[in-house]
Amino acid sequence: MDVAKVLSLKNQLINIVEKIQLSLGSSELDSSNFLQFIQEIKPELKTINTKINDEKRNHSIFSGIDHLPLLAANQDTVKKEKILYAKRLDLMNQIAIDSGLLLNFVELLEYYFDSQQYPVIKNALRYLVDIILIELKNWTDENDSTEFIEKYDWSRLIDALMQFEQSLNLTSANPLNVQSEININSIFDNLQTYRLRLNEQYEELIQNHHIELQHQQEAKLKRRQKTELKHQQKDELKRQKQEELQQKREVKLTRQQESELQRQQKAELKRQQQEAKLKQKQEKEIRKLIIIVAGVILLGGIGLFILILLIIT
């Protein structure tokens, strides 16, 4: 494969498609000017389509030569180069399909310039150049155009191509309206090939989107579970702190109760001691009084005197 040639044809096709896109969006170009424009770019598209198909034929014959340098390479290099080679091969096929289909559209616009099919063909071409530009301009050896195609409104292109196919069906049903140089069957083949490639890409995007959505949902679930776990841990920590605080309060209350009980016991003991002491004092005074009274009665005055002396001593 002549990689430099393929990449050069890619850039040439981008320039032509950009011109088509600009002319389709221009309000200054009237129908006659647009007809002149497509007649001017038609040879350029033919040249690109011819060169890329020649390159495809050469590749089918001499593709084995491309792999000769890999015979002495290590396994990692071989794997990397095979991936790169497959991407460039896909690009070559893509350029062949795109240039062939664009050439079909230009020829149809030129032929059906004054017919009812003209607006339908032009509308389909408008959306077709959009997606072709997205694919080609974002293609590099390092990445493909998948992430850019994801942002494209596929429904517009698919609807436009379906209307275009219906228009071709009506045209091909009446052979008298078809000139010999317009090969409707060939256009159908190119269109179906392109639609097949679009469908494969679209299905791949849907699958990737589904996988990405699943990953997002799983990540969201993990974040939610992580958040819930944090809340649970926070609640558990709060509960433990409350229990610890309650235990401290209970311990403090128990200590206060024990301290109060000890104080009451001490106070009761002191009261009892005071009462006992007072009782002893009272009993002693009563005994003294009894002795005095007894002395007075029994001994009279002398006895009282002696008794008093005894008490004093």
SSE order and pairing:
Blueprint: H1 3-24, H2 31-66, H3 75-111, H4 117-137, H5 146-149, H6 154-172, H7 184-312
What would you note in describing this structure?
Keywords: Membrane, Transmembrane, Transmembrane helix. This protein has 313 residues and is an all-alpha fold. It contains seven helices and no strands. It has a domain at 3-182. Helix 1 (3-24) packs parallel to helix 3 (75-111). 86% of the residues lie in helices and 0% in strands.
Q: Give start-end ranges of low-pLDDT stretches.
A: 172-181
| String of helices and strands | HHHHHHH
Amino- and carboxy-terminal Cα gap = 146 Å
Largest sheet descriptor: none
Instruction: Give the DSSP E fraction (strand runs of 2 or more residues).
Output: under 5%
The portion of residues assigned to helices is over 70%
Brief write-up:
This protein is an all-alpha fold.
Features:
86% helix; mainly alpha; 313 residues; 7 helices
